[in-house]
Write the structure tokens for this entry.
Amino acid sequence: MTDAAPPKLGDIPQHSEFKVPTLQPSTNMDHSDGSPAMQNARDTAYNVSCLYLTFCLPIIDGKIPAMNTVQNHPATQNIKNTMSNGQSLLANFRRRPSQAGCSQHTGPVAENIKNQSAKTSSEFRNLADSRAPPNQSAASGQPLTHYHSFFYNLLSWENPRATSLSFLSTVLFIFAARYLPALRWTFKVLYITLGITAAAELGGKMVFSQGLATSFRPKKYYTIPRESLEASLEDVEQLINFFVIEFQRILFAEKPVHTIAAFVASFLSYWLIKFTPIWGLSLIAVSLVYLGPLVYMSNKDLIDRYLENATNVVNAQATQVKELAGHHTSRALETTKAYAGDYTSKAQSYIGNARGPTSPKGAKSGVESGTASGPGSAPTYQSTDFPHAPKQEPISGVTSHQEQYENSPFGGQAQATAS
């Protein structure tokens, strides 16, 4: 085997001797993206393919060029320059993602989620800041609680994201209380935790002569600060007073519309509770409380118009009933007065007849006047209807009343004197 001189590098052919296709220069390629990074990547791929055809094919033929010749070749230097330029472009791309035409961390969906999350957090802060006593007061003059403003802001859908999330949380809580054994799970977690703690403590004392749970025990147990406890109790007090005040306002009809609505709800609940479970009734109540104001706010003009028409009809009917009742009342009063006058006159006539004069003239005038007792009334008696009382001693030998009368001064003796 004779020593051969190392081959000399000439121009890089476009096609190899083994008829292996090579990349064309970058000037003949279709650059749909004219960015510098894409152009450098294409040039790098072209140079790598040229190096492969130049150095790898001679290795296959058994001809290994010198290392210094490879390192000093212009194609190798071009690759090094291209790689350094690519690293600098990548660093600039990471520093300025907005100038590269895309986002570094998030896409459109993630950006939308981030914006919605920020809006939701802002609405929850607004809802928490609305807990302030309102300017208006109750009909009794006492101030209302800050929960009046809070629940009004919540149920009026001024913060739709916060209200919808609270509604969804309440519905999920009702379903969880119905279908999930939360109380059993609580006891299960409790006994597993206590069992692991006891086993670790006993095992540590048996193996390490020191309990493991004791080693994790804090130097000072956690306690609730007095300020936090007082604030919580005050908040609970305000919440209880909110329900107490609202019940009294409904009971004493401070707003008749609310009283009527509470009556309808109570009446429907009385009948629904017979065949609807508690969780179903709670779900219906929560849905009405949350969705009722939403429906009203969405169709406020239409509902207000119908309510105004209904109010006008009710007021017209009430006025008509009032007028009819007044008419019948006046007629009843007139009839009562007429009957009272008749009975008064009759009573006066009865009293006058009982106290009338006893003289014959008066009796005669009374008979001639033709006063007769009507059917069902007390009979009227005159003084001539009764016999005269005897004014002398009875005559001996006279036994009949007629003889006594004739022998008396008022009888036969009076007639004889007159003749």
User: Anything to note?
Assistant: Residues 14-33, 59-67, 97-104, 358-374 have pLDDT under 50 and may be disordered. Residues 300-354 form the longest helix (55 residues). DSSP finds 15 helices and no strands in the chain.
